[in-house]
Design a protein that fits this description.
This protein is an alpha/beta fold. Helix content is 29%, strand content 14%.
């Protein structure tokens, strides 16, 4: 197995070095200047990239990061990356409630997709982890494998761990188990 941090060593059941695409949508590039309650006091797009890459290294996977404020660029990235990545972690950010094209493109890759959000987008604005603008419905949720939200940047760590363990488990994403 690839070198992993002792905190996650022994969790993986396979030794494949997956490539995970982490896609950050509109406004993630502006994290350092956004609401500190929702996004954390010390998070920037750069520190988020370092945090995510570090977690990938700990899990023995390659992180391929893509960030854009433009929906068309995100679509182009998904179309060209589908054959080389094993799964996607996506923070739709500004596209959460408005995009139909990006979730369809992710779904069409046939790869597992985990949707992440810094805030719990279903919570009210009055809760500690709810978005300051109140609850929202994501257009991505019906098309993704799973979702992790409300944990600020830790949503990325949890989503990466979950995605890698799911990829390691041949029965989790629809492969036949021995009893079938």
């Amino acid at each position: 197995m690839p070198s992993t941090n002792s905190a996650v060593q022994g969790l993986r059941t396979a030794d494949q070095r997956y490539t995970i695409a982490v896609i950050d949508g509109p406004n993630v590039s502006n994290l350092a200047r956004r609401n500190k309650r929702m996004y954390g006091p010390n998070v920037s797009a750069e520190s988020l990239g370092e945090f995510t890459t570090d977690w990938g290294n700990r899990l023995g996977v390659v992180i391929e990061r893509f960030m854009s404020n433009h929906e068309g660029d995100i679509l182009e990235y998904i179309h060209e990356s589908g054959d080389r990545v094993d799964g996607y972690l996506v923070n739709p950010a500004g596209l959460t409630t408005t995009s139909d094209m990006v979730p369809f493109a992710l779904y069409d890759t046939g790869k597992p997709v985990i949707e992440v959000h810094f805030a719990n987008i279903k919570a009210s604005a009055s809760t500690a982890r709810g978005p300051v603008y109140g609850p929202r419905e994501s257009t991505f949720t019906p098309y993704v494998t799973g979702q992790l939200m409300g944990m600020r940047e830790y949503s990325y760590a949890g989503a990466l761990l979950s995605l890698v363990l799911a990829l390691d488990d041949e029965t989790f994403l629809g492969a036949k188990s021995e009893s079938q």
